[in-house]
Amino acid sequence: MKTIYVKYLDPIKVMNKPFETLTKKDVIKHCFSVDNYSNELYALENYANTMCTWSTLLDEDANVEWFIECAYTALKNHDLNWLETYFT
Predict the structure, then answer these.
(1) Structural domain containing residue 15
(2) Is residue 69 part of a domain?
């Protein structure tokens, strides 16, 4: 079941600073948000109604820390292929 909702918010909107000026720790702490839902319906409902830069639903047993590390690397390297494949 896809019950983990991962969001990435633009650092300009969250911290009023561009991505390039922030540390990895700051980006992960302030720009990524993870919500766990009891079922897919709640997760999908929130996913559909949230405004953010990038977001995705992950399986309930997903390695969220690994996913965020990969997402951070893709953002840092401007890897739009990865971002478009794993975020929606």
Answers:
(1) 1-60
(2) no
CB 26 within 8 A of CB 15: yes
Number of independent structural domains in the chain: 1
- Is residue 4 one of the residues assigned to a domain? yes
Residue 64 banded pLDDT, cuts 50, 70, 90: very high
Place of tokens 């997903």: 62
The per-residue pLDDT for 26 is 97
Alpha carbons within 13 angstroms on the beta-carbon side of residue 36 total 5
SS3 readout for the chain: CEEEEEEECCHHHHHCCCHHHCCHHHHHHHHEEEEECCCHHHHHHHHHCCCCCEEEEEECCCCHHHHHHHHHHHHHCCCHHHHHHHCC
Q: Does 87 reside within a domain?
A: no
Give mean pLDDT, residues 46-53: 88
